[in-house]
């Protein structure tokens, strides 16, 4: 079965070709127009998707050495994400499905991230814990089997990726903030400035990141300009470290509660090398196996959407043409 995957939920226009269980091409175009605004501008994202989607799909097919007529089914993100951005991908998928007379299936973007570790060969086994860390979500899921999920932890305010993005802005860095903070943290002393792991009232498993961003704001206001300039890499490294420590603190708590020792860490923030290093140390402490997808499958991509669709399409599950995009789509708990 040849599946075309399409992902346009935020600022990446992506298409992937998946044949008989393997991804054979995955094209990701990251829209750089947003950088100058310090964040994603929804209207710009929709226009960019619209301008590029057809050539991205054609490139994915070209790299897979296939034609449109070879596609058997289409998998497309229909939520969560930016409404206008989702509309472009979903309508493109519907149009192509009609034109080629093939089925299409709407996929939850978060479900794509949950399965991204299976794209590259991995020893990940069910049940597993998935720490999902993106620009919009920070959650710990227990994936019992295909389609069976239990939510153990969620953020009560900002997502970890958002904390990186907002923190980067406070430090005068560009967008997206995660890679920028990671870059400038190199050579910085992560113990130079003191931040504490935030606690969430009534639920010690949940995350909260908005207080960390405020703590960083106070520091940037309080530290004299000259010192700030000199110590920016220390401040970035200290801020990066506390975000990572907060993520791993909750992961350890959920592990202690469930004793599930297969763990997957996915989403854009999972691309962070310091995070990977510290997670590996934790895996030794816990005697657990922690898996990260290759970097290209951490941030948004269509390969994970195609992968998440495979079992369902094999079982004959399709979407109807009246499927609407859903910006606030959640996963079933
Ligand atoms: O999964 P993703 O590509 O898109 C969403 O579904 O949101 O995640 C994007 C987020 C952004 O907040 C970005 O700053 C963060 O992932 N990110 C990183 C790194 N690369 C991307 N955060 C920390 N370190 C990185 N290297
Ligand atoms: Zn994502």
Question: How would you characterize the overall build of this protein?
Answer:
The protein has 333 residues and is of the alpha/beta class. The chain has two domains: 129 residues, ATPase, nucleotide binding domain (Nucleotidyltransferase, domain 5, 2-Layer Sandwich); 167 residues, Nucleotidyltransferase, domain 5 (2-Layer Sandwich). Helix content is 42%, strand content 19%. The chain has ten helices and ten strands. The strands form two sheets. The chain has a five-stranded mixed beta sheet, sandwiched between helices. Strands 8-7-6-9-10 form a five-stranded mixed beta sheet, with helices on both faces. Strand 6 and strand 7 form a beta hairpin. Helix 3 crosses helix 10 and helix 5 packs across helix 8. The protein is globular and about 65 Å long. 49% of the residues are buried. The mean pLDDT is 96. The structure holds 5'-O-[(R)-(carboxyoxy)(hydroxy)phosphoryl]adenosine and zinc ion (ZN).
Percent helix among the residues? 40-55%
The CATH topology of the largest domain turns out to be: Nucleotidyltransferase, domain 5
Order of helices and strands: EEEHEHEHEEEHHHHHEHEH
Q: Which CATH class of the largest domain?
A: Alpha Beta
Bound ligands, each once: 5'-O-[(R)-(carboxyoxy)(hydroxy)phosphoryl]adenosine, zinc ion
Strand content: 15-25%
Structural class: alpha/beta
Strand order of the largest sheet: 3-2-1-4-5
Average per-residue pLDDT, rounded, comes to 96
The appropriate CATH architecture of the largest domain is 2-Layer Sandwich
